[in-house]
Amino acid sequence: MQLVQQGKLRLDEDVREKLPELTKAGILRGFDDQKEYGKQAILEKIEKPITARQLLTHTVGLSYDLGHTLLERWAKEVGKKGDTNSMTVEGWTTPLLFAPGEGWVYGTGLDWAGVLLERVLGNGETLGQYMRKNVFEPLGMETSTLNPAAEPLEKLENKMKDKLVPVALRDAETGELSLSELPIPAAWQPTAESGGAGLFTTAEDYGKVLAAVLRASSNEGEEGLGLKKETVDQMFSAQLNKKGLEMVKEMGRAFHAGIMPEFPVGFEAVDHGLGGLLNLEDVEGKRRKGSMMWHGYCNSHWWIDRETGIGACLLVEQFPFADPGVIQLYNDLERAVYGELVPEWKKAKNA
């Protein structure tokens, strides 16, 4: 959004020329099982523009391939090296599942947004280097990086390695926790720096980002990120068309604990902004309408409530995804925060 504000990138310009890998991959429409020879994948040419807006809202048609039957079959058929968690551009290169803008599916859109940023800049600067100069350093985020191995040795040894948190794995039968390794190891030295899943950070550092977005929401502006209020207003505006909205809601119905566990079951007043999911109505005892949120693979969560000025994150390293214990903690945390900081919620809590 910094590039958009600076006029270096337009949200709705066609970026297919800058991302030829996706144009070449096409749209996967299924498989021709009657075909006896050659590849059976049915691939359709991408005729519609691919835009930055689609990448930021997961409406471009890109999905993660882990556990996705069609994409895994396609990858095997073409001999693809590396999956979408491999921290490589080749790994992120998959066919779309629908034409750009014609649905919603969570996937590698933010990774490709990072690739797009690098190619728009065109100066050899990586996403991580850009983030350091334009986000981490201005906000005083001393323990954040997209590429730990590229950091100065002193910073790596003294400020990062000793802060690494091991992953806890919950036993499905006993409920007990034990230390484990991630099924998908974090990339200490990624081939491509990931905008969707590559951040090494701390709660203190991440909180600085949330606070900066809240400051930028005021008319006074914000010096760290340099975002104007109208830019942030755009980020927090509903972006989905009817088809995309229905696909988000469908995902919420099928996997509530994984998509929107902070909302009551059946809550469907949602949309997607430029960077996260929005609730379009107040959640009783919790965040106000227009708030943005998302979460991570190891059960970390964040939200930004511009109406009350509250932003918070819960960072954990626990697996599997959508752990009920973490979800309970997250909901308890949010209710406690609003119970203390929001007068009307506090009054209702004590009534």
From TrEMBL:
Keyword Hydrolase in annotation: yes
Residue ranges of every copy of the Beta-lactamase-related domain listed in the record: 1-332
InterPro entries xrefs: Beta-lactam-related, Beta-lactam/transpept-like, Diverse_Enzym_Activities
Family, per entry: Belongs to the class-A beta-lactamase family.
Superkingdom classification of source: Eukaryota
UniProt GO MF annotations: hydrolase activity
Organism: Pseudoneurospora amorphoporcata
Protein name as annotated: Beta-lactamase/transpeptidase-like protein
Keywords, alphabetical: Hydrolase
